[in-house]
Amino acid sequence: MQRIFSGIQPSGVPQLGNYLGAIRNWVSLQADYECIFCLVDMHAITVWQNPDELRKHTLTQAAILLAAGIDAQKHVLFNQSAVSAHARLGWIFNCVTRLGWLNRMTQFKDKAGKDRENHSSGLYVYPNLMAADILAYKATHVPVGEDQKQHLELTNDVGQKFNHDYGVDFFPQVEALIPPAAARIMSLRDGTKKMSKSDPSAQSRIELTDDADTISLKIRRAKTDADALPAHPDGLADRPEARNLVSIYAALADMTVEQVLEAHQGQGFGPFKAALTEVVVNAIAPIGQETTRLLQDETHLLQTLRSGAQRASAIAEPIVSEAEKLVGFLK
Ligand code: TYM
């Protein structure tokens, strides 16, 4: 069976973009792949995280993933820092990757902005740790949103360079599984910015633990324009906010954008937002309720993550030990 690895940063509460771009796919891929899902706490601290908040978000994310349908018995769910193989292989990859490759990473440029000198070196080498996450398990498929595509290209470059430098055929090439629709959900406040769990404005995103009233309010306040919905997707071309709301509707209702427009053409945003709220609440509210229930038993969540880490380690340890031997480390 082919192996999947994917991760999410516990830097906040997962939002609708995480759900549509990644988590929802993770749930359905469980039927056909051996899956390893990771709460990447080491990636999270590449930007400042309050320690109490990091602990809280890691547990909440574990609960959300279980509530969304991740099966932690059949598959593997754990937090990254609990398996040392990630850090060890990450270091080797720091020594394989060329600086020029990292200089081209658009996520670093976006996150660091003009104030590059004041960001952590961890943020800069972030893609190397991500490559290590995946290749420590020799995973072949990685379900992610579109924003991670460049990181997966770098993963393949690092794996290939390692194989070339040490004259082996050790690390496989990996394939990104990016959903055809909803691979990039945008902010509710600005249709040109990606929806993100770390955006300072909570109004910009729908969090998976939001209740029906909060979801309804956020959608009512979402930025739109004054025009009615067009009959055809071409009519959304220069309307990023409108396009985003229609795409969210389509993804959650399992419809195409064309079908959504056919059903709602000519409508203003008042009625469309009401219809959208219903679709979002139906999809998200049950996850929030189940998350609240699971969070009441912290011990069980911690046990689930601990058992996941043991099983993850059993897979990664022989692979990373072999990589260390290939490099020439005394074992
Ligand atoms: P993170 O925590 O930013 O996001 C987790 C997943 O959600 C997807 N995503 C989105 N999809 C659509 N629209 C959006 N607005 C949106 N926002 C986020 C992301 O593409 C991602 O799939 N670097 C990764 C974490 C990571 C990882 C890995 C992923 C670390 N190691 C190894 C895969 C494999 C990240 O920051 O995800």
Automatic annotation (TrEMBL):
The keyword Aminoacyl-tRNA synthetase applies. GO terms for cellular component: cytosol. Coiled coil: none annotated. GO terms for biological process: tryptophanyl-tRNA aminoacylation. A motif ('KMSKS' region) lies at residues 194-198. ATP binds at Q9, P10, S11, G17, N18, G145, E146, D147, I185, K194, M195, S196, K197, S198. It catalyses: tRNA(Trp) + L-tryptophan + ATP = L-tryptophyl-tRNA(Trp) + AMP + diphosphate + H(+). One of its GO terms (molecular function) is ATP binding. Keywords: Aminoacyl-tRNA synthetase, ATP-binding, Cytoplasm, Ligase, Nucleotide-binding, Protein biosynthesis. Pfam families: tRNA-synt_1b. The keyword Protein biosynthesis applies. Its EC number is 6.1.1.2. L-tryptophan binds at D133. InterPro entries: aa-tRNA-synth_Ic (IPR002305), Rossmann-like_a/b/a_fold (IPR014729), Trp-tRNA-ligase (IPR002306), Trp-tRNA-ligase_bac-type (IPR024109), Trp-tRNA_synthetase (IPR050203). It is found in: Cytoplasm. Belongs to the class-I aminoacyl-tRNA synthetase family. Catalyzes the attachment of tryptophan to tRNA(Trp). Homodimer. This is Tryptophan--tRNA ligase. It comes from Acetobacter vaccinii.
